Amino acid sequence: MLNNNEPVFVAGTGIISAIGNKVAECLDALESGRAGMGPMHYLQSAHRQRLPVAEVKLSNDELAKLAGLPRIKSRTALLSLVAAKEALQQAGIENIKDLRTGFISATSVGGMDKTENFFNEFLSDNSKGKLRDVINHECGSVTELVADALGIKDYITTVSTACSSSANAIFLGARLIRNNIVDVVVAGGTDSLARFTLNGFNTLMIVDEQFCQPFDENRRGLNLGEGAGYVVLISDKVAATLKNKPGIILSGYCNANDAYHQTASSPDGIGSYLAMSGALKKAGLKSEDIDYINLHGTGTQNNDIAEGTAIKRLFDPHYPKMSSTKTFTGHTLGASGGIEAVFSVLALQHGMIFPNLRLQIPMVDLPFVPEREIIKNATVKHVLSNSFGFGGNCSSLIFSKV
Amino acid sequence: MYIRATGNISPQKTFGHQPLVDAAAYTGNRLACIEPDYKEFIDPKQIRRMSRIIRMGVAAAMECLQEAGTKAPDAIITGTAYGCLEDTNSFLSKMVEFNEELLTPTSFIQSTHNTIGAQIGLMLQCNNYNNAFVHRGFSFESALLDGMMLLKEKDASNVLIGAIDEITNTSHTILNRMGLYKQGPVSNLDIYKNKTKGTIAGEGATFFLLANEPSATDYAKLDGLHTFYRPEGNAEIKKQITSFLERHSVSMDEIDLVITGKNGDAGSDKIYEQLGETVFNAKNTVNYKHLSGEYPTAVAFAMWLAAVTIRSGDLPAAFNYTGAIDKRINRVLIYNHYQGIHHSLSLLSAC
Lengths: 402, 351
What we know:
By secondary structure, chain A is α/β, with parallel strands linked by helices.
């Protein structure tokens, strides 16, 4: 039943983020160096004058129209449905109704954006607050709103491992295919901006008041973002039935734990190292085979030195091209692994290395420098995508051209 | 695969691996966990920093690992529908009350859904696979399937799997307003009798160590797991059950005990009654939610019950079972649904 070596193909991708409402718009922004951060427009927070965010440039009403869901639903679900629909549409699997299909979504915030509204009234009087605002609080409930709208029911689950959530969702999807539980999986993640997370990160004093500068010696922290990103993964058998057989596979993956601190990375980035080296091993690749690393690269002091140190240990002296696309999208938390998986696929499809924006002074403790400018017509056969999170949860994915 | 060890904190005296002799009786629609003395399992300095659900989860995990005699599982996988509600509520309330000022990070840090699995990994200094599922009534089953696949893939030889959910005053108030629970005086030991609307709230922290290879002290074999989402009607449910048994080449005659997820809610229990007259016909059937209460990951309590029953060959005395089980219980089927949406089947047998 289990086929541990079955190739799992990427048949479609979908994104909504601060730099575009679909994949083509995001690619255009990446090519032209257009970042998505700015003053808070949709999020109603006391910090709006001080903290820039990377918002999706649509109101809930506009998103609801695009998604085809009632506008009262959590923004997390609206973002998810828009991106998941695009991914399925792009995959164009005609006989999908006859196949076993799964939806594996990741989120860290779930329906918190609505729960916050509920609490405004509930706190002063426990009989107040609209229950419709809290009924989809649970992360899994957001996933089900989207699965039901997509008509997917064969396997549904939700992963929540903070900022590595989506990467774990994606490779769980691949394993479900290899274990012959489903034929097709829509996998990735979603997170909307919420006051809860903005304030949480703010108390940790790792939010940058300017636009973030990952892997810069003078980096000050991260910008929070929002969005959703999904890939459609299919089995070898399904891939063979498509008119155009997909050319990209998820070749490697690994989940490891830093086991150092609830919110901080270890100085040597042991979790990151184990995730990256484990993914290489799973893919049967050597470190010098990797052409591009889509860095976790949040822009915090702690992440970038831990990640960089782990990269040095694993790749020295053959460094691949690298960049943090969070310089465009902000840190979209539970969605970041999904969004960056799609960017990794785009790098393979278009032979591009995306720039690490605003990099001025490279980190003095690291012997490598991420790319500052877009590179086109590059040879990109294998891309490593890193997602590391609170709780020491570290996951890496490798996408490869076949 | 084999259930090598368990750890269970529940509204019953399940912690400490003592036989469950008496059922703890409660009045009211909320069963709270009987918490152990944590000092044996967690450093007292750490206990103070942990909220209640984290303490319960970590202690249940540690008891399980102690029984298994390992400090380094190849994977730590948790399932929780609601996550760390007390910390979430604390941060959210202060944020609203103080209009986003004067906040401190502790409760935010501990509110993330992977906190318990992460704390276990941290205490064990375990760098291995660590995952967290948060899918309502499938949270535990998702964690379990992930662990079962890791064993099959040979990426792990043993996995620690746990289910953790808590009731807080806030969550109980909100879920009560949604109409989930029985109103008026109610005893947990009588919930199946009255056929009224609503159930009783429960909570728990239940962990298992699952291993690829058998050992001399295993509880049971886990032969199969299957979940299905929003079935179209009773006919589909029946078909799902019969094809699950077929896939595992087991007939109903070979099942010694069926554990079902009846929770006292008249509407929700209908399907169990119908199945009792059809698919489960004449099978010895017991329910467990008078002991655990109802919550999205309650099925983990049922799996613990199945494991201890198979190991001893008989139901715990607390069941005071009057049906006709005339032989050793070697094979157990668990069928549970949560709010008619999340359905699961598990098959366990003697080693």
